[in-house]
Amino acid sequence: MPIKKILTSANFPKSLCLTLLIISVIETGVYLHARQIPAEVDKLLEQRFYPPNRIPALEESIIQWQVYHAMSAEEEIDILLLGDSSSLMGLRPKIIQKQTGLTAWGIGTLDYTGTPGNVDILETYLQRRPAPKILVYHIISWSFNLSEADLQRFGYLERLRTWMATGLQTTTASTSSGFALPSMRYRRNAQQLLTTFSTKDKEEWLNAPRGPYPSDNEIRQTLLKNQGAMTEVVHEDEVNHPRDLRGYLRIDPSLIDDIRRLMAICEQRSIQLVIVANPLPESGATPENLAGLAALETQLRDLSKGQPHVTLFAPFTRVYPVALCASYNHLTEEGAKQNSRELSDWLLPRLAKLAQ
Asked: For residue 165, which phi and psi values (nearest 5 degrees)?
């Protein structure tokens, strides 16, 4: 149809209005999505923790999605649950949230990144999100025994630091307001949205199961649904037998500065820090192990002297029936629920003081 005929057509104004309306709706949707996730946090999705040419390891998926989800959570988080995999497997944010009336989210990852990695995650979080009222630092007692040399050997700590440093850089293109048209300004966001939820998430390696553990996509969905929590597979051959933990129940000297750094950050940001040790299975409650945990508690109390913003959960040493323990490091789903209820019950009478 000739251009002149189109322009003089009786339907032209209606068609033009409809086209403009559709464009506006699309741009509004893209804009709202872009506003929900800060540009620098969105970089964590562009530059994932794992390379795009293989099935990611379970540990890689956990680090990727725990950090990303906490950074991009829509609600302000009152109780942040930090720590190693015992925090990830042993606490249920939704139970804590329901019992305390405060929003809760888990950002626990792995002992492969250690206390230094946990403190780095907290620092990165606080650069981009409001400070929580309470930080629960939940650990397996021997996580404090992993030296800087151990962590360097594992390789995850340096990868985590590099990923957070590069993945959270804000590019000029993503934040510039100098585009002539809104549609140009949000083009990058639209392209990224389409890429994220189509091509990438349909690639086979993101959907591939990993033995008894779910795929990367399933981990992503589970962690988001559970607000940073997942269930461990039960290891009966491990949890049913006594285990000598005495060599692990101490703080490695190379980690003292990192523990002090954690306490100092919380003091600077007016965050109440609560340190919680994962319950021990009955099979491991030997006199020697219990004495080791008592010595670890003493070390932590000495480090927190004169710091009213730091509290140790009491009782620091707890023993659970084997049926509630998936391994020496992790609780079962029922064990995690009980642990969360105990923490919530302990927090409730202290909330007014802790959240001041």
From this structure: -70, -45
